[in-house]
Amino acid sequence: MKEFGYQRVFDVSGALALLDADPDARFLGGGTNLVDLMKAGVERPARLVDVRELPLDRIEPTADGGLRIGATVTNSDLAAHPEVRRRYPALAQAVLAGASGQLRNMATVGGNLLQRTRCGYFTDVTRPCNKRTPGSGCPAVEGEHRNHAILGASGHCVAVHPSDMAVALTAFDAVVSYETTDGPGALPLSEFYLPVGGTPHLETALPQGALITGVTLPPAPIAAVSRYRKVRERASYAFAIGSVAAALDVRDGVIQDARLAFGAVASRPWRARSAERTLTGARADGETFAAAADAELAAAKPLPHNGYKVTLMRNLVVAVLTELSEEAAR
Amino acid sequence: MTTAPTAHKGSVGVARTRVEGRDKVTGAARYAAEVPFAGLAYGWLALSTVARGRIRSVETAGVLAMPGVLTVLHHGNAPRLDTGFVGFLGAPDPTCAVFQHDRVPHRGWPVALVVAETSEQAREAAEALVVHYEEEPHDIAFDGERSDAYPVDGHMPAVTAKGDLEAELAASAVVVDAEYTTPEEHHNPMEPHAATARWDGGRLEVVDSNQGATWVVSDLAQLFSLDPASVRVRSEHVGGGFGSKGVRAHQVAAVMAATALRRPVRVVMTRRQMFSLAGYRSPTVQRLRLGADAGGRLRALEHRALSLTSTVHEFIEPSAGAARVMYDADAHHTANRVVRLDVPTPTWMRAPGEAPGSFALESALDELAEKCGLDPIELRARNEPERGPVSGLPFSGRNLIACFREGARRFGWADRDPRPGLRREGRWLLGTGTAAASFPARARPSTATVTAEADGTFTVRISAADIGTGARTALTQVAADALEVGPERVRMRIGDSDFGPAMIAGGSMGTRSWAWAITAAADELRERLIPGAGIPPEGVTVRSDTTAAVAALTETERHSFGAQFAEVAVDVATGEVRVRRMLGIFAAGRIVNPLTARNQFVGGMIWGISMALHEEAVRDRASGGHYAADLAGYHVSAHADVPHVEADWIDDPDPDDPVGIKGIGEIGIVGAAAAVANAVWHATGVRHRSLPIRPDRVILAGTGEPHA
């Protein structure tokens, strides 16, 4: 494999300076995805800047009642944090639904947001892939795409985003903070991932050389009754074929507010706003839940071999919202 | 229950941890790619990126200038090999005869070996190597409609036929006619294939990971036109094989490079390369036609199985073979056919034939039981053959129904409501299923030496392979009893071709064949030793060869049998299938080591779960290669998929057999996938005839639509 440099940094400015000095450098978090991609030849960085020892490993309440999660917090610590479990249970469930215990001990929040798709064409350098090699083509459109996108894809790329955590964060309007050599910035997660369009290789709106420093969850009382359900092709240690993060606020049988996001259906975590609009103000019953799912999935454009995902997501939305409304009623 | 130890011989039948267990868990045990050598160079295979065509050129110049690169071997400069021989398992698969011509018969065909000072340098250079091809259109379309399929014998006759099939089907009260499919499956042993070759004092030594050291010696010697005595292969510890670890491209390439460079060369396959180079189980399309009278007695049985092979070698997955042992019928027709495609050659994989064949056959039996309104176990009891349905030979023992009875008792089968789709627990539909299993108990000649040492211990030398099965431990117990000493006085040395010819770890014949040879040598040694007399410093050594004894074995239908039970939960809304518990009861001869035997049975059953629900290698039509060929893309059951799995056995004596050990490596997987699939039907009312039973298949099938 290609030789590369490695440097561990202990402060943010040092990290930014190293990346600024070397356009072929990459930040290394837990390495659970980047190192795999280096072995596969998909990523060929000249230098790794290990940011895992940066002082960004805390989870703190914000003044307004939200939570700020540092970028180097591990998945394991995030899922185990009492305030996360109490205020945003779907987030803890989403993190625990991902990977394995060993991987969660290594993986970081910042890295999780930036992980790449597991599309088998993307990870195989002997195949064309518009995301890896712009303009080379997308064999998935007419090839293997059982676990590819049904929403928001383009003819240039039909890959899905692999993160579970990001689905829950999307449902709860998380905001990503970053630092650059020009100063700090922030991006709502809804704007963090770029639409695929004709540029699947451009995945996020992060400025060049930016370092994610943390994620802020705004206060969301609704999130206290929330849930993440993930369906995959085995019981554990596999990426989702469909997942739902949901929260419901139900009073007297009527939905006051709803949060819904889908995983494994699009190039990014998919905030189901059409479904949310259908839910809000409606009676919390199966009919409403199905109508909400249908409202969101009306835009689905399944490929020849992933049409089952439309049924799966509809069933999953109804199942999860039914469970939540029962929980909210207790 | 455990098999009772024989009188005054206390080792066999007693649970013992592995004799090398401590070495393995502490990392002291060295595997093939871990044995250090001075001056070691590293080879990295470059594989073709086209599925069919011709190599036009290999651009070596740039790569040879890269750091550390020592040489690039390819069809233009590699030594010629002799492939015109018949080896231990037939003619060699030309896939292992690397760099002999410019033809590319499948994607992932080895086109070059780059050798460098370090593994990283070799890899970087191999990945930078530019190979130009004249690409030709490829054909990888495997389906039941192939008109170019033809029958192939393999290790059994391709076709057997008796009786008038159509007449018996027409006269049957109940008929099942269904097609079943299984996907391409891969062995994926934990330890990748790895070999280090070096010349040492005029002898070629290969430190390797394989299932039979003398097998590898024999094939390498013939490929390189060497005297077999001048080749030595060692494979002390092997991290899994499952049929994939014979002679493959990496050993041959390593020998070529070690010869060219006159220094040790190591070649290790990556996981991804293993998908192309290590062999695999062919996908199958199987058609079953069963006809029975109203009481469930079979009048007609037809099992036609199709598998695929490469264009360079004929290998058949004989799925239709199981019916030749399991069930008789007035008209009984079985056929194994193959189609040649632009894909790598498949190979033996745990229970070749029986594993996919039993899925189809035992699913069809379950469908027949449903149609007849009979309990599936009762149906099988009514169809117990007196003699081999095809051979006409008597069974040396056939304890299938005893396995079912014991399994049914322990599983709680009597309480089962046979109607499907009735049991619900929250979002889960629950069901149970069962299936029969069998696997042949064969033996092959082996040699062994046993030495009585002056210090009162004994050293056994046999070219056996412990591929993770516990064979080393089992053989220690067998030797201890044969020598009538405690196992702590026995030193078991295996995995070295210098110990002489022996059976490979394969076909569930390893422990049976090796134990035979060890027992023969030990028996003779005990006769030679004079009680009270001292042992000379060099010890007393006896060598055995079971060739004549194996040949003299009476020909009978000698098999292990088993009954598999599974309980599953299915969420038809999400397509998730979870196995809740499994029970396997086996009649598999004398059980040498209950601990490692249980591990073998349970391991096979877990693979059955994996086969039923998860495993599937996907080929991309456009490129002819795999999609996501790694363990993230090729799912095997994870721990969370493997619930309470229990295996046990019943007494299965075989007084006419000199060994009594039947071999247990493969039967655990046989019938396991069918038991799971039958349970999914019982849970949901939907028959799933294509494996794996993926969520998308379950979702699309829904519920309550029989025979969707």
How would you describe this protein?
The complex is a heterodimer of chains A (330) and B (708). Chain A is an alpha+beta fold and 330 residues long. Among the domains of chain A are: 5-49, Uridine Diphospho-n-acetylenolpyruvylglucosamine Reductase, domain 2, CATH 3.30.43; 222-329, 2-Layer Sandwich (Enolase-like, domain 1). Chain A has twelve helices and twelve strands. Chain A has helices at residues 12-21, 34-39, 75-80, 82-87, 89-96, 101-106, 109-113, 165-171, 189-192, 273-279, 286-297, 308-329; strands spanning 5-8, 25-28, 47-50, 59-61, 67-70, 175-180, 183-188, 211-217, 226-232, 240-251, 254-263, 270-271. In chain A, the strands form three sheets. Chain A has a five-stranded antiparallel β-sheet with strand order 4-5-8-6-7. In chain A, a hairpin with a 6-residue loop joins strand 11 and strand 12 (270-271). The termini of chain A are far apart. The relative contact order of chain A is 0.13. Chain B contains 17 helices and 27 strands. A seven-stranded mixed β-sheet of chain B has the order 3-5-1-13-10-11-12, with helices on both faces. Chain B starts with 20 loop residues before the first helix and ends in a 7-residue tail after the last helix. The model of chain B is unreliable at 1-8 and 704-708 (pLDDT under 50). Classes of the chains: A alpha+beta (330), B alpha+beta (708). The interface between A and B is large, with 37 and 36 residues.
